[in-house]
Amino acid sequence: MSMLLLDEEELERPRDIPDVTAKADWKVALKRAASKFSSDQCTDKAAALTYFSMQSLFPGLIAVLSLINVFGNGKKTTDSLVRIVANIAGKQPKDLDWLTNFINDVHTQGGGGIALVVGILLSIWSASGYVGGFSRALNKIYEVPEGRPVWKLRPALYLVTIIEIVLIIVVMFALVTTGKVASSIGAEVGIPSRATQIWDIAKWPFVVLIVVFIIGMLYWATPNVLKTKRDIFTWGALIGFVVWVVASAALIIYLTLTAGASYTKTYGAFAGAIIFMLWLWITNVAMLFGAEVDAELIRTRQLRSGLPAEEMILLPPKDDQMFAKLDLKAAKEYDTAHQLRLESMREAAHDQNIYGRAALAAGHAAQLVGDASTAGRSGKTGLVGPRDASAPRPGADDRGEDAVAHDLEAEAAAIEESRLERRDDFLLKSAKARVVRDRLDRQRAKAERKRKEREREAEKQRKIAESHVTREQRWESVEKVRAEFDPPRTPEREQIHAERRARRAAYDVEQAEKAAKAAQQPPKPKEQPAPKHHRSAPEPSVLRTQVEQEQQDRRDEWFASHPARVKTM
Description:
Blueprint: H1 26-39, H2 42-71, H3 75-89, H4 97-108, H5 112-141, H6 150-176, H7 180-189, H8 193-221, H9 235-258, H10 261-267, H11 271-304, H12 323-349, H13 361-378, H14 400-467, H15 471-484, H16 491-520, H17 542-561, H18 563-568
Helix pairs in contact: 1-11, 2-5, 2-11, 3-4, 5-6, 6-8, 7-8, 8-9, 9-11, 10-11, 12-13, 13-14
């Protein structure tokens, strides 16, 4: 029996997205996702995301009401809006007087345009806080630190926020325009009732597709890992949506059966707000669980493809610019703490010759940025092992051999410290040189790929151009090239050119006549080869016949000269 041993090497994040062809293992992925959901403290992160959701709710409400104030028709628009909300809630418009008064109060404040601009800006800013929190949660799931600097991260978060807000508005409009609302809007616009009935049925797949796209875009755009474009629509996003729908339905059934008695009894007038926050928390829990499933599906595909993804999902970071800075900051904090311990030990021993093997910041940065930038790309901030100080010996006699031994130990510690400093400095310089070398290699490889692409495109265009060139155009191009290098014109040369043109014209006429005759003649039927057993045997050649005749003559002559032997035979 043979055994294959897998060498466990230090992992580093790849520079490019690895090619994965294997299918995911759903059983392993779901089991790991449930375990990671607990270990990553996703319920706590869902609570933080719920806070950001509530924070972005009120600026958005101000923006919507200001939009109604600017582009609406005053009280008529307010009454229509309240009537729509009453139809959705199954109540009478007079039961929602508080909503009417609230909208009227906002309208009477004035400054609708300013309120609209401020509300939109505040809603985008507060909603970007939710997207940023979701980004940090997914970085925890993928076990990668945030490497994008602020000037890159914030615009990306704002762009994702704007896209998400627009899609959410589209979904809300699709959900609101249903039943009586859709019929009333269709009657006012002139849309047939048949079309509104079709819309009531056909809108649900559209809504599901948009919601799954919203979740998938958060999974794809917010974490600091690079994914392919096709990873926007993933099974994890669909599972997150299904879990959210099931959990929301369970909450609605519970509230319907109990009429919200426990919440009303506990929170009183705030029961509605608490239930709404609970629903938001359930929504975020479902989305984070879908993100865990999505990450584990990627991991199982990589494992089945032979990649060592047991401890880390092998996806490249979008940006690792901040990795070295974060590691250097951690190293400096470590050195400060270590120096504080050394000073306290020197004061306690009243000896300034105590040397600690301090982990210099340069040494940390060299180990973390070096080794092919493994720590930076893997996102693991492993510090250099503790270089403990030499412990003091209280009460030791400083005289005689002990003093000499102590001096030798101090000198050895100083030499070791100097050696470590030189090593750290060398590692830092070599790490920087390697980063520069890798960057130049990537630039050269990119330039080479672009050059080959340009050559392939030029060759393709040349072949396309040549396929449309006629014989006359080709002769013209040949004549142009010849004209560039022609000697001075002479009568003899003109005569040669005239003869050449005459021969060329005759050749063209001959080719045209052949083509015309070939077009007039019917196509020749294909000759079917005769079966093998019908073919006659080839006739013998003259030489072979002559050789055989000579052999027969010699045989007859021999038998004629030996009659006695013929008789005995």
